[in-house]
Write a structure and sequence with these properties.
CATH architecture: 2-Layer Sandwich
Strand content: 25-35%
Number of strands: 6
Number of helices: 8
CATH class: Alpha Beta
CATH topology: PmbA/TldD fold
Helix content: 25-40%
Number of domains: 1
Radius of gyration: 24 Å
CATH superfamily: PmbA/TldD superfamily
Strand order of the largest sheet: 3-2-1-4-5-6
Length: about 300
Amino acid sequence: MTLPTDPRSYLYRPDALDPDEAKRLAAETLSRTDDGELFLQYSASEAFAFDDGRLKTADYSTEAGFGLRGVSGETTAFAHANEISASAIRRAAETMQLLDPAKQGPAAPPRPTNVHLYTDNDPLTLVPFKEKVALCEQIDAAARARDPRVVQVTTGLSGSWSVVEIVRPDGFVATDIRPLVRLNVSIVAEENGRRESGFFGMGGRYLYEKLFDPAAWNRAIDEALAQALINLQSEDAPAGEMQVVLGPGWPGVLLHEAIGHGLEGDFNRKGTSAFSGRIGERVAAPGVTVVDDGSIGERRGSL
């Protein structure tokens, strides 16, 4: 199979839509708005699940579509479809007619940047199917050989590749190519009739080669097994309040649910957040510092 060399060719086809036409349509359909954009996206994804010594599932899918968003004052209109074509965009533009004409004038385009936080390469096509299955088999065998108490191993390998283009009515265009891979290892250990599990996952916006490194997947096995074995010795936690220490990374989800929504721009702009007007004030307990950095290379949240 011959793959296109230009990722944008997954968004634009001569018989459906070309880049210049996308600019014209964005300008026409969003001419009455304060802000908005035409968002085009193609994505391909795959997932392997290896359980009980055999490949249980191997999924692959692709999808493409667009979203058209218009903002006028405090009102937002949105339309989308899974067909990228000029005719589909024109049909979606009918939704924009529900907006009142803009009163503030068009918003300024975002400031461009050449910062490149991850590769453009497609991780799905660079590694043959059989090698992905072989890695799952290798992890399964290595995990079972680690400790005689291991009774079940589940390995998950997944990846995706996405092409995104954002077209604004003022002619500003931003393109992003997003790879993402992940490896999950789950282990169940049994001792004296008691079973406990451990889990470890790793991944980011890079290629499969990092996950295929023996040092990487052996670490995943060691971490998952260590959790399972520690859990075999665990005791019931006492009731009542106690201090909890969270490390960096995924525990940030708890922080997001606790205060993250209150820190979002819209709620503060409208004055409806508990944090509105408090820039420069301390809003957390002494010693608590939170940094949300989307510019760290090859991380899941780096965009």
